[in-house]
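Postdoc handover notes: sequence design on the structure in folder B. Input tokens:
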């Protein structure tokens, strides 16, 4: 199919780009886990990060299926290469678009609505950008759309294979990203359509629930134990923090303005899509055929409210919401095309809007990719020097909790905030096993921060290995 081939080609552009630029911190953590699987043995039950100090770095995280798959690709291609992760994401992203198209076609039986929905999903600016990022989200989206499609098929013809394929895909999706559990609402609709409202009392429903939820419960229990043992976590259960349970944020007008306009309108539907999505949402066409996606939209809204912190802080958290949004946009496109089919201006106007969608996506995409230039990365000189000086010795990175520097320099050690860097802190580094303290001077903000750093560099002048106006490297062993 032309749309899918073009979507894949676009996502493969810059497939060798280094882990810098948009959301590099998230990609660096993901890539580090893949690299550690490749180097330290393929133990999928014990994922490792780089910022665990002198420990093994075992971390509480969501199921690392994507990271493990990329590590296997490293073993096939003969080393750590960014294209293994980015190309995998691109393929998963296009497969998620394919399954979504099949969902729409299976429900509506309308090719125009199906292709238009695919178009809006496949060429959404953020879907393209994160559809080739070194992140597990594209694989998770494939699991959700694929699992939903197979359950649609089962709900219509009762094929056992579709039932088990759906359960496996949804289980993996939830294991990879806990918020993916919101997909349960449209899946319940499919069970009701197949078995009636009494489905909850059937063995079939309980079998599906067990196949989906038991693996997820087992993984998250194991991950919790892993985090309790190591003290390292990605904060999966951080209620009221930066991910979920932020009820004060939900009642804020700024939150909804930011999500609905700055994110969904500008970065996901690229303006033109909003017109079609609204037309589709309020359309009376396909009143019965659209019910699955209405429930999907309700689930997406609940997800947006419950995981408000994650959605507010990170664009890629809105990727699952793109499924119902793209359906409504496709439905609106189809409804308008049918209503004004005899008009001479219909084709030029629709073509112009599609052209705007593609052009807007291209500009957004290329602008975002322009930051993926390692030599223009502010920390690049420090990365080069740290590789030469630090080797494999443990380091303390003044990096504001951003693992990109540590990943690119291939270091192991600890994160540190500029506010932590005091003479007392430096004197303790050696005792913790750290051999070097490195960082960018720009992280030390304000007169007090600059003064504190200068005092440290002056006090331990004999231990300073490199110091210029951009960064510093200091030996801490023996202090």
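Designed sequence:
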């Amino acid at each position: 199919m032309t749309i899918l081939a073009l979507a894949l080609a676009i996502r493969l552009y810059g497939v060798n780009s280094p882990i810098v630029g948009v959301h590099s911190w998230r990609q660096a953590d993901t890539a580090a886990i893949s690299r550690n699987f490749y180097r330290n043995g393929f133990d999928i039950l014990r994922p490792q990060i780089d910022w665990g100090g002198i420990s093994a770095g075992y971390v509480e995280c969501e199921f690392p299926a994507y990271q493990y798959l990329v590590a296997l690709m490293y073993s096939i291609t003969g080393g750590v290469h960014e294209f293994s992760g980015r190309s995998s994401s691109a393929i998963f992203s296009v497969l998620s678009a394919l399954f979504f198209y099949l969902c729409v076609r299976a429900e509506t039986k309308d090719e125009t609505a199906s292709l238009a929905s695919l178009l809006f999903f496949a060429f959404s600016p953020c879907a393209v950008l994160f559809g080739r990022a070194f992140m597990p989200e594209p694989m998770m989206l494939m699991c959700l759309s694929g699992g939903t499609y197979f359950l649609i098929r089962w709900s219509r013809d009762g094929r056992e294979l579709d039932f088990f394929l759906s359960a496996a895909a949804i289980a993996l999706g939830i294991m990879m990203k806990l918020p993916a559990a919101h997909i349960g609402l449209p899946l319940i609709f499919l069970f009701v359509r197949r078995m009636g409202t009494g489905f909850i009392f059937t063995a079939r429903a309980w079998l599906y629930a067990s196949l989906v939820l038991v693996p997820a419960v087992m993984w998250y229990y194991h991950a919790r134990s892993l985090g309790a043992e190591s003290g390292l976590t990605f904060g999966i259960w951080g209620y009221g923090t930066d991910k979920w349970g932020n009820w004060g944020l939900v009642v804020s007008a700024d939150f909804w303005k930011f999500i609905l306009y700055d994110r969904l309108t500008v970065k996901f539907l690229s303006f033109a899509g909003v017109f079609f999505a609204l037309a589709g949402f309020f359309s009376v066409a396909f009143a019965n055929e659209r019910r699955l996606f209405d429930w999907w939209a309700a689930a997406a809204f609940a997800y947006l409210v419950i995981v408000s912190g994650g959605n507010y802080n990170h664009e890629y958290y809105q990727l699952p919401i793109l499924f119902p949004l793209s359906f409504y946009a496709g439905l609106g496109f189809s409804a308008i095309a049918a209503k004004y089919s005899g008009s001479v201006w219909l084709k030029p106007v629709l073509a112009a809007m599609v052209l705007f969608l593609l052009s807007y996506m291209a500009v957004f995409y290329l602008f975002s990719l322009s930051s993926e230039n390692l030599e223009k990365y502010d920390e690049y000189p420090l990365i080069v020097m740290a590789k030469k000086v630090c080797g494999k010795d443990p380091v303390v990175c003044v990096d504001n909790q951003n693992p990109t520097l540590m990943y690119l320099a291939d270091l192991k050690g600890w994160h540190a905030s500029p506010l932590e860097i005091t003479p007392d802190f430096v004197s303790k580094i050696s005792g913790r096993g750290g051999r070097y303290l490195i960082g960018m001077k720009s992280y030390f903000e304000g007169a007090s921060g600059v003064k504190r750093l200068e005092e440290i560099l002056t006090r331990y002048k004999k231990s300073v290995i490199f110091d210029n106006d951009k960064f510093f490297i200091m030996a801490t062993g023996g202090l």
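Context for whoever picks this up: The chain has two domains: 2-369, 378-475. Don't rerun without checking with the PI first.
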